[in-house]
Design goal:
CATH class: Mainly Alpha
Number of helices: 6
Radius of gyration: 18 Å
Oligomer: single chain
Largest sheet: 2 strands, antiparallel
Low-confidence stretches: none
Distance between the termini: 45 Å
Strand content: 5-15%
Mean pLDDT: 89
Strand order of the largest sheet: 1-2
Bound molecules: zinc ion
Length: about 180
């Protein structure tokens, strides 16, 4: 499955904001860190006040529910709530020589409004393309990192190779222990 690159920014940004709340590294969620996330996803005018950074942290919690949704219907309902609340005046644009793609809020909206619209709209389009799947939470029990699955077969279960390996080793040890007990 090939995903339209222009639509992926909002989805990947959504995952990063959803993951802000679970990382307990010192300084997480500080203004600078959230600004760095916005820059990484090429959000224009990414400078934040403390209040705006707080709003985006709260928005990250809302976005997490999209990844945690247990099926298509629930996922659509959660995204619909975000769309109703935070997208206004969607329009097509070809800025910076890109192919035509949708923006979900006027360009002069403030940074919080633009991020909220881009993430809600990006998740909506991705969910259409991915037929309600391909958003998830890491299967490792001690990890709650969310991810976007753009793999060929769409069966990704872990946020990263490290978590996948950890579980594979764990399963192997459990099997070994079971067989020596016999
Ligand atoms: Zn754009
Ligand atoms: Zn993980």
């Amino acid at each position: 499955m090939q995903f339209n690159h222009d639509n992926m920014t909002g989805v990947r940004l959504a995952a990063d904001l959803a993951n802000l709340v679970v990382e307990d590294r010192p300084g997480t969620g500080e203004v600078r860190e959230i600004e760095a996330i916005l820059r990484r996803h090429e959000i224009r005018r990414p400078v934040l006040t403390t209040r705006q950074a707080g709003l985006l942290r709260v928005w990250g919690v809302r976005l997490r529910a999209v990844f945690e949704a247990s099926g298509s219907d629930e996922r659509c309902a959660v995204i619909n709530a975000l769309l109703v609340e935070r997208t206004a005046g969607a329009f097509l644009t070809t800025h910076d020589g890109l192919r035509p793609h949708l923006h979900f809020t006027p360009e002069d909206d403030d940074v919080v409004g633009r991020v909220q619209a881009a993430t809600a709209g990006g998740l909506a389009i991705f969910t259409i393309e991915a037929e309600g799947r391909r958003l998830g939470v890491c299967a490792r029990q001690t990890c709650v990192t969310v991810f976007v699955d753009t793999s060929r077969n769409g069966r990704r279960g872990y946020c990263c190779a490290r978590c996948g390996n950890h579980d594979a080793v764990h399963r192997h040890r459990t099997r070994q222990a079971a067989s020596t007990r016999r």
